[in-house]
Sequence to fold (341 residues):
Amino acid sequence: MDALIGKTPEELKALAKDLGLPAFTGGQLARWLYVRRAVSLDEMTDISKAGRELLAQHYTVGTLRPSLTLTSRDGTEKYLFDVGATEDGAMGGIEAVMIPDQDRNTLCVSSQAGCKMGCKFCMTGRQGFHGNLTAAEILGQILSVDRIHPLSNIVFMGMGEPLDNWPEVRRAIDVLTAPWGFAWSPKRITLSTIGVMPRLREFLDESRCHLAVSLHNPFPQERLEMMKVEKAWPVTEIVRLIKQYDFTGQRRVSFEYTMFAGWNDTPRHAAALARLLRGLECRVNLIRFHRIPDFPYGTSSEKTMTAFRDMLTDAGVTCTIRASRGEDILAACGMLAGQKQ
Fold:
């Protein structure tokens, strides 16, 4: 059955009317879904019992419950949802990761089951693509975790490429930020992308959320070795497009740079990265690579990462080394595989 979560007040009014219910039922549904965070139709007590029974014949609320929760030594939690599970067992579902940090709880949410992008260093990409998530399935992850740990931030950095599923991701963001929805500030949301154009332009035009770009190598031919999408969407064109937008105010753009020993961590790479980003108000996040099976590279040493950061800083590029979280439960960057492990 279709889910109610993810629908606008206008859509809820229309479906109520189609069922022969008063139009104002749509407004009641919106308040129960997005303000009161109801998990069942039975909770919606200002809708008649007959109306709730009629709705239940055609719709579900759309809430999700994790089938498995793992907790890391550092407090990070990973949740497995059975959405997107495959019959052959290749995928047990999709995963979301909650990262606590003092007074902040950030949820890393998935937008697809698997991924089409095929980056060689990413466990999700190795699983192949099993389907787009609906806005209801995206919001279901958020609502499920928010009931346990009130969330301060959302990052679309889980399984899948968000811009490859932009219509549903955009709908989910609309619900999160709309006054009738969760009424979140766009500043609480970051979308991470490999650089899917022209969806990237649509995101930049239609949203005020923060942007994070998976870059990983400033040299196109070397980037192509690990990221086949470089052929379709060259990193130079991605950066050229981003430079057309203003990031000097509250909206931010960052570039994710996973460090691989001997592949992208030399002074030559640091200098090229600084040239590529020259003139753009941005941040580079250096990420420790978390080793995965059958992959030739390890992570760069702490000394190499620190030197790389300092070279970028000296070149005028704001750069930080991101703390690694949740590696012991396979919850760190590039390790989500949607499997019961």
